[in-house]
Design goal:
The complex is a heterodimer of chains A (about 150) and B (about 250). Chain A is mainly α. Chain A has eight helices and no strands. In chain B, helix 7 runs antiparallel to helix 8, helix 8 packs antiparallel against helix 10 and helix 12 crosses helix 14. Classes of the chains: A mainly alpha (about 150), B mainly alpha (about 250).
Chain lengths: ~150, ~250
């Protein structure tokens, strides 16, 4: 993986040295900018694995819950704010603890698509009607995509 | 960023309340630290195990995280956002919406950069369907896929990426239809623009071309677009006005 990316940098460096340096700078800056969040997310994953019993995950997000689990997954994803990269480790530990895959997929999709926290900003930029419509539809789609994932995977 | 620009940006960070600002920016970290503190009080052993297991997971993916950000940097620099944005603003059919969704998948950046960028695309005349498709496909996060594969497996990552992409196009039409149902309201784009510059633009702007004009002017105010664009932040002007639009 690292080799592949390094090769990508080598190739683009061939075309423009300045732009490659820029890409490196962007990469470094965003990496260090996100570092505190990553530390937090992996800290959370650790806490989760030790303190949250699988039976609890089973009850809220288990396959037995059906539509309820789907709804819980999408709701938790909407309220949770954070970079998308943070959703994957958490989703991974949810699945390990026995969560229903479509519910976890709904969780990831709504984590990135629906932003309760960024809603005021979206409303300010695009107008409230658009912000509410898009977030509402996204919430429904998160659950639909989750269900479809259940068939596909 | 060049050293000169870095010096210019530095004083903003060193305000008197920078500690507070940092705390607010890293709410998640503070919350998790609080949880750990509580865990140490309640169950010292468990907290230690949690820390160790979190650290193990982190170490197992640290190389992937570094590469993800490497890809991110490449995309940021090599995808010409301005060119694509101009193309997306044209009168659009299904093709443009699909192109928008494709553009969204390689788009990287935080909300406060992406929203103003999309707003500028909208002001260039793009349909709601295109804006929505980009915004939805933005959730695909191609550079993040390696991380997803690591935690959730190939099949999961592939299926989610494909479904989100299809969902982006369908949602584009759906949201646009919902936006057009009912009365013909003032397009929010225009309303916000007039709010943004009350002193500069007294007369109501008629139609999208006017809105585009203001955006261009704003871009000029916000520094040379070319210089800013090199860092993938070409919309600092728009960004600023979008923030100013709120009282």
């Amino acid at each position: 993986m690292v080799t592949l990316v390094a090769a990508g940098y080598g190739l683009t460096r061939h075309r423009s040295v300045a732009k490659t340096h820029q890409a490196l700078t962007v990469a470094r800056k965003s990496l260090f900018g996100m570092l505190p969040t990553f530390v937090a997310v992996f800290g959370l994953v650790g806490l989760f694995q030790v303190f949250v019993p699988p039976s609890m995950v089973e009850r809220w997000l288990g396959a037995g819950g059906g539509p309820f689990s789907l709804l819980v997954g999408a709701t938790v994803g909407s309220v949770a704010a954070g970079p998308p990269a943070g959703a994957f480790p958490i989703a991974g530990s949810l699945i390990q603890a026995g969560a229903w895959m479509p519910a976890v997929a709904a969780f990831i999709v709504s984590w990135v698509l629906v932003g309760v926290v960024s809603l005021p900003f979206e409303g300010r930029v695009f107008g409230w009607r658009y912000a509410l419509t898009r977030n509402g539809i996204s919430f429904l789609f998160a659950m639909l995509i989750g269900l479809a994932m259940g068939w596909l995977v | 960023m060049s050293p000169a620009e870095e010096r210019k940006a530095a004083p903003r960070r060193l305000g008197p309340s920078w500690v507070l600002q940092a705390l607010r920016r890293e709410v998640l970290l503070v919350a998790v630290a609080g949880l750990y503190l509580w865990a140490f009080v309640v169950d010292r052993d468990g907290a230690g195990r949690a820390l160790a297991s979190g650290g193990r997971v982190f170490l197992s993916v640290v190389l992937i995280i570094v590469s993800v950000f490497g890809i991110l940097g490449l995309f940021q620099v090599w995808v010409d956002k301005k060119k694509v944005a101009a193309r997306l603003g044209e009168r659009a059919g299904l093709g443009t919406i699909i192109l928008g969704a494709a553009f969204g998948t390689v788009l990287v950046g935080p909300v406060y950069v992406i929203f103003p960028l999309l707003f500028a695309i909208r002001a260039h005349g793009a349909r709601w369907a295109v804006v929505t498709a980009i915004l939805t496909a933005w959730a695909v996060k191609i550079p993040m896929v390696p991380l997803e594969v690591q935690f959730l497996g190939w099949r999961f990552a592939l299926a989610r990426t494909m479904l989100t992409f299809i969902g982006a196009v369908v949602m584009g039409f759906l949201v646009e239809w919902l936006m057009n149902v009912g009365s013909q309201r003032v397009p929010p784009a225009r309303a916000n623009l007039v709010d943004a510059a009350p002193g500069r633009q007294d007369q109501p702007v008629k139609g999208e071309p006017g809105a585009t004009r203001i955006i261009h002017r704003r871009l000029e105010c916000g520094g040379t677009p070319r210089a800013a664009g090199q860092h993938g932040e070409q919309l600092t002007g728009t960004d600023r006005f979008a923030l100013r639009a709120s009282p």
